[in-house]
Amino acid sequence: MKLPYLTFLTTLPTTASFTLRMGTGNSFGRLFRISTWGESHGGGVGVTLDGCPPRIPITRDEIQIDLDRRRPGQSRITTPRNEADAVEILSGLNPEDITLGTPFAMLVRNKDQRSGDYLENDMSVAYRPSHADATYDAKYGVRAIAGGGRSSARETIGRVAAGAVARKILKLYNNIEVLAYVSKVQEIEAKNVDHDTFTMEDVDANIVRCPDEASAARMLERIDEIRKQGNSIGGVVTCVARNVPAGLGAPVFDKLEADLAKACMSIPAAKGFESGDGFAGTLLTGKEHNDEFYIDPETGATRTKTNRSGGIQGGISNGENIVVHVAFKPTSTIAQSQSTVTRDGQEVELRGKGRHDPCVLPRAVPMVEAMVAITLVDALMCQQAQCELFPNTASLDERPNPMGTTAKREGGPKKSTVPVGSGPVGLKVDEE
Description:
Order of helices and strands: HEEEHEEHHHEEHHEHEHEEEEEEEH
Helix content: 25-40%
Distance between the termini: 54 Å
Number of strands: 16
Shape: globular
Structural class: alpha+beta
Largest sheet: 5 strands, antiparallel
Number of helices: 10
């Protein structure tokens, strides 16, 4: 039996029950929200940033710095595609380079795409092993063959551009720094990196983007060895956020490390994420792994003696350095022959052609920085909206002691009232 036309209309979802955001899966963030768009071989790629605070001074040149660190053609261990990646700011800034609080739109036009490398050979019908070719086709029933479309690392241009804005906001708010570096290429690991002091200049001092020069030389040798074989190689990018205040993140589903994991795992080729000691922490006992607290003798703030938690406890930042590690797989497109299948189900051999990165790690560094910065600004704005809308009017003694590297207790450290030699404080615990 057919429903009357009027009855059918009343069953449609209303705007209150159904809201379609820009392109399913193309947006990230809650209050500080980005939506990226464009394909690798289309007219261009870009981002719309919504929720950017007004009155933030930022120039096109500041944004271009991060895009230049991401762009292709930087060295022999990155794709030779020649793109200037010059950003055009379409909206969101006034003539004095001050944000307006309105949607901030940025565009980078594609100039050096070579679609023939994909369309005039077997790559137009055969799926590249471990690439998104097959899964995109399975999902949509159609795909952008040239350059991989949205699965290309070229999509990250929008993220990095928005990340540059986020970086400026963090700097202005609490002198927060977000810096990443290549910490591992296969089993070759950086050993001598001080997370409190290393700089972007240290990271960019070599083409691998590893601030440990001795390890960087060994990493480069390994990448070159693999590259000359027509193969690819993966590794780990470590990211450190300094001067992050305590209190960012929320319990249960919106834990800060959960948001950071989603942000970083959304980057092309990312296959693993760790917060703090991560999986290495499973080899320790609770006594070994716990970050014991102490009172900073100068600021009076609550600090931790170690940072195995990576600056996050219970899903909320504790004011110490936030440290995360992101694992990247070897690039899928390689110049060696591999077994695969065609779109119509025929088994074939495929040898990748065109231009690609033998190792994504050096260019992944600014991508990770961008996603961490965007996540932190979003968390900061959520914290301001919920917990700092009204000032805490409780007396100093009734408030929790300030916490973290940049926190200071008013009047300095509190005088201890615990008798000397009284022994450990007893704590009865009844947890599930």
